[in-house]
Write a structure and sequence with these properties.
heterodimer; A: Protocatechuate 4,5-dioxygenase, Chain B; eight-stranded mixed sheet; two-stranded antiparallel sheet; 11 helices; 10 strands; B: mainly alpha; Protocatechuate 4,5-dioxygenase, Chain A; 52% helix; 3% strand; globular
Chain lengths: 305, 166
Amino acid sequence: MARIIAGIGASHVPAIGAAIDNGKTEEPYWKRVFSGFVKSQEWMRQAKPDVAIIVYNDHASAFSVEMIPTFALGCAAEFPPADEGWGPRPVPVVEGHPALASHIAQSVILDEFDLTICNKMEVDHGMTVPMNLLFGKVDKDSHWPCPVIPLAVNVVMYPPPTGHRCYMLGKAIRKAVESYPEDLRVVIFGTGGLSHQISGPRAGLINSKWDKAFLDNLSKNPKKLIKIPHVDYMREAGAEGIEMVMWLIMRGALDDKVDEVYRFYTVPASNTAVGHIILANRSRAKASGKHKRAAARAKVERKRS
Amino acid sequence: MPRKEQVYDDIPGTYVFDAERSRQGYGINMFCMSLMKDENRKAFKANEAEYLKRFRLTPDQTEAILQRDYNRMLELGGNIYFTAKLGATDGHSFQHLAALMTGNTQEGYAKMMLGGGRSVEGNRSRSGKNAASPFVAGAAKASAKPKAKTKAKTKAKPKSKSAKRK
């Protein structure tokens, strides 16, 4: 069976993408940001996932205000980088995993999460920036190290889905992944945040105390986070900081108790607090044993019937 | 019909782009979206007022766009990810827009961000009725240590199992 081995939280600040694309990563301002992802890239090279599910949001690139899906799952074979006004980012086309994606759609819709299916979709910095942060810079004519299933969440128009809803969707995604017959190692990304406000007279807001509490609880006590009302996110972490709810989809897809492998936090990257965490499932090592037991049980049941 | 008062209207300096503003500002956002195409940017630049007639805008909305009054655009239903496209069409960086919206100079805004951003203290509530979220107030007690500006730590080495995997 397929299984989720780890969850990754990462900000998706567009200026980080611009710094990579324009060769500014060695400048002191940006080095401070990128230095926090060196160990993560090493971790990712060792983890070698077969598929990444990336929870992110579109920023008026693939979706305008004509259609605003709350949860949109990318089931296409490929997702071209969107032109966000400066030409598409010079990154490879993102290869999808249509078989697992459509399996997830079928499973979670029957679990009462009414997803929108996208068989054609461009992806913006919301997805490609965290990919760069974890996979490193990848030449435009090369390939990303693994296929990706994008899950776009509306966090632009209020109200986004609640933290609780996001967390429960994560659980449904996990169930779907684990009912997929092929033996795949899957990682799930929650992206966006942390605290930032880029609109109105209060723009520039950063709340490190909030961010730290969020990361602490994400790691140890996620159930506390799912009760936070939207207005608290907006008041404390900024109008656009509400996108942190997307991290709860990632967290819901993991074990209740996880190992915090790595954490990084720095302020600022342009207008935003950069947060990053890697949480590994404890069941990842035991899964093969469990799998064997389940297979044995199934054999016994077949014999009985 | 006047705007229905929402609980988040108490957050100072913030125009939440909610379903009501999304309805009201559809024309502003579709206009901004049209600026993704070069031919449209050229047509807009050639005659701004004429170009805006292509969209369903109220006189207030048209005025806000022509005046580049970004806060007013937000108030009338524009969304920042969309209005930023107008800023880009004018050749401005996002920081320029942020400075405009916050009534700061671009230099002053940049300096504030480098210094750790705008503090939430004193910026939570217009009415003063809403204090810190209990979620963060509880966490503050738990973490009394001062924080470094940049922090990275490895809590556990990746397990050898995954490391060995080819």
